[in-house]
Every structure is written in C-alpha cells, then in structure tokens.
Specification:
By secondary structure, the protein is of the alpha/beta class. The chain contains seven helices and seven strands, in the order βαββαβαβααβαβα. It is 30% helix and 15% strand.
Length: 262
C-alpha cells in the first residue's frame, strides 16, 4: 500500500522538523518552505504569493499547515501586524485555497492555545498558570473547544481566523479540516518557566497528535482539538481529542523540576 502524500508548510521549524523526521517512514513528505529543507522535495516560496505556491499542492493527499509569523527575539509576542497579515492571514488563506483547488482531502491546521489564553485571566486558571496551586480548587472545569475564543494577542487572533476559515473550507469544499490548538512545544523538550507547566506539549506528544489527525477517519469533517501533554495542572480539555481521533499523551510536565526562577 502506497504512503499517504503529505505537504508540510513551515517544515524547517521545530514542529515541522519533528514531524518530518519522526514520521518519515509512515508518510511521503514534501515541503513548502521559504528555505530549502534537506532530505525531502521542497518548493521554496512565500505563502503570501498564491501563484508561486500552487504547484506544491498538486497530487497531495493531505496538508499540515505550520507556517506562520511567530515573532522574533525582540518581538516575542508576535505583535507586528504587517507580518501577521502577510503570513498568518493572507498566507493562511492562500494555503487553504491552494489545497482546495488541488483537491486535497485532509487539511491539518497548526492553530494555537493562544486562541483561548485570555481565559487565564480568570479564576482559577490564573492561579494554575502562576504556579499558585495552593490557591486553586481541587478540581476545575477544563476550557473546551466550545468556550468562546479569547485570544491573548494578535497572534492568537490570527490563529482564530485560521480556525474559522477552516470551517468555511470544510463546508464549502468538503475538505476535512482538523485544527490543532498546540500547547508549548519547546526546543529543550521540557518546561522553562512556571507558566509553561499547564500547557506543556512534549515532542513525542505533538508528533502523535499530528499522526492522529492525518490518520483520522475520512468522514471527520471539521474539528478543533487541544494538544497538551498529560500535565497535572492543565486547564485545557484533551478528552475530546481522545474521543474523536484517539490522541493519548504519553508525557507530562510534572516529571521535570523547574530549573529557572522566572
């Protein structure tokens, strides 16, 4: 049986690299990237240039869209509107449109927990994020996909746009769209700050989430799933992801002692 052909945008990023290296034996990957990607076919283009990116989608069974503006060391909040507009609004629309025109059946959108991080302002979630566990209740209601979108910045607003756009393309073109609200995937694969403990997402678990989305039933039209590891203090729901695509995280932030005081 031939491998599923999967196009990754943003394949040179942290998550893109994890997916293409750890799942290379399972899928036939290619890349749409501004920089060359070693070891796989790659079309180098800016996703804001619609005509330039269209050839990358031909013959693909699925797309994993991870490319986005995520800010710089000087702009960690990704608050640059022009960059967000270019990559995460115009570029995101172009990727959806090119996929639809090429007849792609499955679209996996790399969304973010930033679409709902505004809920951290409320009790008891602000205590969980601050590490004030003695002030939190023994149990709390997890924030689910059904709660109102509440971004914590422009980046989260753009990701919310991508989720809504996915709903439109699923309804209008019959393309199966699965949106992953990614947690904190870190280069060290361990929490660096106290606030990262609830939303930590290990390298192994993020790869498993993408695999679950790519292998999900064909009749799954549209879903939003939260991706965090099995963290004791998590406040985002992962039960829905288990039910609809079989995601079961293997790791937890709680196995790590905090090394920094920030």
């Amino acid at each position: 049986m031939s491998k599923k052909r999967v196009l990754i945008t943003g394949a040179s990023g942290l998550i893109g690299g994890l997916v293409r290296t750890r799942l290379a034996d399972r899928y036939e990957f290619s890349a749409l990237n501004r920089r060359p990607v070693e070891g796989m076919p790659c079309l180098q283009a800016d996703i804001a240039d619609f005509e330039a990116i269209r050839p990358a989608f031909q013959g693909q069974d699925a797309v994993v869209h991870l490319s986005a503006y995520t800010g710089t060391a000087e702009d960690p909040a990704a608050g640059d509107w022009e960059q967000n507009l270019h990559h995460s609004i115009i570029g995101c629309r172009n990727v959806y449109e090119a996929a639809a025109q090429a007849g792609v059946k499955r679209f996996v959108f790399g969304s973010s927990g930033c679409t709902i991080l505004g809920h951290e302002r409320e009790y008891p979630y602000h205590h969980l994020v601050a590490g004030e566990y003695d002030q939190a209740p023994a149990q709390w209601d997890p924030v689910t996909r059904e709660w109102p979108v509440r971004p914590d910045g422009i980046y989260g607003c753009c990701k919310a746009f991508g989720e809504v756009l996915g709903r439109y393309y699923a309804d209008e073109f019959g393309m199966s769209v699965l949106c992953i609200r990614l947690g904190a995937v870190l280069d060290t694969d361990r929490p660096k700050l106290r606030r990262q403990y609830p939303g930590y997402l290990s390298h192994r678990d993020v790869v498993e989430m993408v695999r679950c989305c790519l292998d999900a039933p064909d009749d799954l039209v549209y879903e939003i799933v939260d991706a965090v590891s099995n963290n004791r203090w998590r406040w985002r729901d992962i039960e829905h992801a288990r039910k609809v695509i079989g995601y079961v995280p293997q790791d937890s932030a709680d196995q790590y002692e905090l090394e920094e005081t920030a």
